[in-house]
Amino acid sequence: MEAAADIAVAAVGALPPLGFVHEQSSNAFTLDIADMWRTEVTLPLAFGCARTVLAGTAQPLEREVRLEAARLFRRYQLIPKMIDRIKSLLDTDDNHSDSNVSARIRGFLGSSMLELGPGVYSAPRFSPAVRERIWTVLAEWFQVEGDASIVMVWTEPGMPGGQDVRTLGLPPVEVVEIDGLLVARR
């Protein structure tokens, strides 16, 4: 189940460590997603395989679980359902008409930041290291976006207004200070 959830989380570009229930894990979001199918898929799978193995009509337990899991995942189309559920949780829609970036980027940013408006993301409490890592991924992915734009805003006490801004895309925007305020110059 965790492997299926891992694939789904990666498919939408979400950050695996940013979970809600399993907060202390490096793949917390993946574990959270896997748990959503615990009663519907995982428990029936486990008890069904145990019953089959105890009846003596199956292969060793580990192999039986792997084979039955593969059958169930295909039958239920589990990974596509997980992807849809993640998009729903993160309020990400591939047909979102007011956004000009891909669902991959919206999912990635939406899993860790608040989207203030189409393409405008805020993360007031990120450490500089996390913010730089996110920006590095964005800059790499953004090369194939085409006619799109992203604005990232965060708290920066040393800057005018206590915020700093980075932009990617069209039209090119330069953030400048005028009389202690940040303004956008196009």
Descriptive report:
This protein has 186 residues and is α+β, with helices and mostly antiparallel strands. The protein folds into two domains: 2-89, CRISPR-associated endonuclease Cas1, C-terminal domain (Four Helix Bundle (Hemerythrin (Met), subunit A)); 103-185, no CATH class. The chain has helices at residues 2-11, 28-35, 38-54, 61-76, 78-89, 103-110, 128-142; strands at 114-117, 120-122, 149-155, 163-169, 174-178, 181-185. It has a four-stranded mixed β-sheet, with no helix packed on it. The protein has a two-stranded antiparallel sheet with strand order 5-6. The radius of gyration is 21 Å and the shape is elongated. The mean pLDDT is 81.
Short summary:
The protein is α+β, with helices and mostly antiparallel strands and 186 residues long.
Q: Which architecture name of the largest domain does CATH use?
A: Up-down Bundle
Provide the CATH topology of the largest domain: Four Helix Bundle (Hemerythrin (Met), subunit A)
CATH superfamily membership of the largest domain, which one? CRISPR-associated endonuclease Cas1, C-terminal domain
* Count of the domains: 2
State the separation between the terminal residues, measured CA to CA: 48 Å
Helix content: 40-55%
Return the CATH class of the largest domain. Answer: Mainly Alpha
What is the strand content?
15-25%
CA radius of gyration is 21 Å
Order of helices and strands: HHHHHHEEHEEEE
Overall pLDDT, averaged? 81
Biggest sheet, open or closed, and with what strands and sense? 4 strands, mixed
